[in-house]
């Protein structure tokens, strides 16, 4: 299918950060003993003074990020998404969002990407609790091109943001030409009139595959890459509801509060249509990421099946 | 400075496409140029004053701030009276004689930073900032009123002179460490002072930050602990004892000194003495909660009790 070559988005993140840091000496990186897993080895080599590794201390890390921003720097605060967001949630709320600090929070290896390391290491709740914080944009790039564009946007924009940087290998999904990422705007990757699949991050390529499977059943599914989870592209959601009449959401995060809930809120407030919200709803059993994605139905098959269900075609 | 320079509307929630996320302060508070001029004259005078004259000027300044604290809290029906009165002399000394700030240009990049980590003592800080002219003292009467920028806890987005929003405890020191690291990277000579409550030292985040500051030898960083010995519900010693407190800081690579936190000259010496070989400094300021009002002093119930009209009258009389 479309998946010849896959990428770890952390590599694109790391390369882009170094590239930007060469041109802007305000850019610094902050991490929690995660130089390797945040892919900051190259940054550390080139800018040893501009990498602030605070050790295993996430509350300290986020507070320090806010302080660096106060001093006029542009900190990219990097850590495994679950530790960054869960351990330091109050710092993210008070020191970063409520203080409007110019901090770029980078949640590395999110979702189920730590696989068999287990639910303690999975970051499946981050979208829910960060989306609840006012004035904190939440951005989930789906491939390397989006990752680069989002990092670039984050560096230029003055204000806080959370960037969810994927680890699980994904293929390129961004269309050639045009901006790979526009803040607050979804990208429509495939036209369709029968249903819409709204996906984010790892699930975008799987949504595209699902649309091909659905086409074999005579269902023309639209595919939307929702790379900004907050603020949500309401117009694109309303168009999906109005023009296709059914919506399936898919994310590597709990739909209770995540992308699924975000889309459902708009649909409910504007034009209710049948929906299915796909994502893990329990702590994961033991298994690698690919296994867990299958376990939770987060595959092309699983998404296609849900689309048929929502259309009442599952018994056809 | 025109408000537009620090003000743009925070356009969020449903904003999409070309909309930028919120970035800057939104405030109705403007510098009070008369107050600024008066504060600058005081600073100029103290720069050349002898020690008795310095002490007398700071005592007078602190007295005025305490009286305003009482009337502001009484008027609002809300506030943390005891802690406001224990931290007053610390804030008075810092803003009256130490910090290089510019109330007319609160975002001056090379300003010294003060972070009040014990954000619940906002009224003491607001009053001190107004005394310096960051905004008009008339605004203090809006404290805690609907839509006032002067919230129960200080917000960076609303109040000029506030470096980071505080309120949840254990947040100020990590931010202060980040400021000190950042200023050093920028080769700025500005210093960073974090004022901490003693009870809040029970929050582990302080010790994460203390460890980082010691490790990075942040000699431009000073922590001042308002050591009044009481927390919301009881004595710190009865709740989760902090002693030996100075030794704890030293063990984290800091210099630590203990002073009378109501003796302005002792505070001044403690915060201005040169730091020893690349060490951050902790000044443990021994204070009395409710200082200056006999019936509030060292009494736990005055943590966030609000004086009634008669108590306010008596307090103001004692503070005259």
Automatic annotation (TrEMBL), chain A:
Pfam families on file: Transket_pyr (PF02779), Transketolase_C (PF02780)
CDD domains found in the cross-reference section: TPP_PYR_DXS_TK_like
Residue ranges constituting the Transketolase-like pyrimidine-binding domain according to the UniProt record: 7-172
Domain of life assignment: Bacteria
Signal peptide bounds: none
Classification via PANTHER family: PYRUVATE DEHYDROGENASE E1 COMPONENT, TRANSKETOLASE-LIKE PYRIMIDINE-BINDING DOMAIN-CONTAINING PROTEIN
Protein's name according to its UniProt entry: Transketolase family protein
Record organism: Nonomuraea insulae
UniProtKB/TrEMBL annotation, chain B:
Source organism (scientific name): Nonomuraea insulae
The protein's name in its UniProt record: Transketolase
Source species taxonomy: Bacteria, Bacillati, Actinomycetota, Actinomycetes, Streptosporangiales
Pfam families per record: Transketolase_N
Coiled-coil spans in chain: none
Residues annotated as domain Transketolase N-terminal: 64-303
Matches recorded under SUPFAM superfamilies: Thiamin diphosphate-binding fold (THDP-binding)
Highest taxon above the source species: Bacteria
